[in-house]
Amino acid sequence: MTQGKAVFVMVKWVFLRSYNNRLEAELAQGLLEGYDITANVVADDYGGMGPHLLPATGGAKLMVPAEDLARATEFLKDADLDIDDYDDDDDEDEAYDAGGGNEKDDDSENRW
C-alpha cells in the first residue's frame, strides 16, 4: 500500500468587479462557474446578516483566478450581466388594477 502526497496549488485571485449586494455577485459567480471558471464572492456583510454594510466596504467583490480574468471578463460582458443598469420602465404604460389584473382601461388614470 502506497501513501500519496497531498498536492496544493496556489491560486492568485484577482478582482473582477463589485456588486451592490451578495445576490448579484452570486448570480455572476454561477454564470462563470457554468463556463468552468472558478469564482469566489468576497463580501464583508457579516455572513449575510449585515447587507446594509456592503456599500461602506466596497460592495460584494467577485474574484477569479488570474489566469481566467480575460475569459471571465468576456463572459460577463457577453452575458450583459450588468444588473445595476437593469431598466424596467417598459411597463410604464400598463396601469395596475387592484382587482387582480393589469388590464388598462380608460379610467385607469383616475382610479387612485
In short:
The protein is an alpha+beta fold. It has helices spanning 22-34, 54-57, 69-79; strands at residues 13-19, 40-42, 60-65.
Protein described:
- The protein has one domain (13-91): Hypothetical protein rpa1041 (Alpha-Beta Plaits, 2-Layer Sandwich).
- Residues 86-97 have low confidence and may be disordered.
- The protein has a three-stranded antiparallel β-sheet with strand order 1-3-2, covered by helices on one side.
- It is built from three helices and three strands.
- The termini are far apart.
- By secondary structure, it is of the alpha+beta class.
- The longest helix has 13 residues, at 22-34.
Q: Which series of helices and strands comes N to C?
A: EHEHEH
Structural category is alpha+beta
Global outline? globular
Question: Structurally, how many domains make up the residues?
Answer: 1
- Give the strand order, joined by hyphens, for the main sheet: 1-3-2
